[in-house]
Amino acid sequence: MKFIKSEIDDVWIIEPTLFEDQRGHFLEAFRESIFRERGFIYRYVQDNISQSRQDTLRGLHYQKHPHSQSKLVMALSGMVLDVAVDIRRNSPTFGRYVSAELSDQNRRMMLIPPGFAHGFSVLSESATIFYKCSSYYDKESERGIRWDDPAVGIDWKVESPLLSDKDKLLPLLSEVAPEDLF
User: 6, 47, 106, 149: which one has the fewest Cβ atoms less than 10 Å from its Cβ?
Assistant: First the structure.
């Protein structure tokens, strides 16, 4: 596995090693010992799968402490633009984001620690995303920021995103209560 440092500390792009032959390919997506050696000590307790059609935009979501989550995100099919926004109040990169194209072709993954809001847009006809979470989903701790916050300025690479009603109503980052940030 190759770990690639992103522009923001603590967010990593991971390229698993592919073993290919005439039958197809094999990859190891997660091995706890390799992650621990790199200093990533997350106990993953929940796996999620999300299937979406082209131009869908999901996010930007997070859970506040003590139910904050690390996420390890991978595209099983299709292509997405995966995004992590730094919402750590005292971080020098507060309000900035990291994005990466994750696809069934490049097999890249994004490792997102607690303290980041997460979202993705679907760039292919459809996409299936798999992600591991270090904390269980907790509805009372669920929070988010608006996908089109001009202060964050994310280029989602979709012209007319398909959004949930809930995501349309999320606040701007500047409107989030300080106790709901990290």
Answer: 47
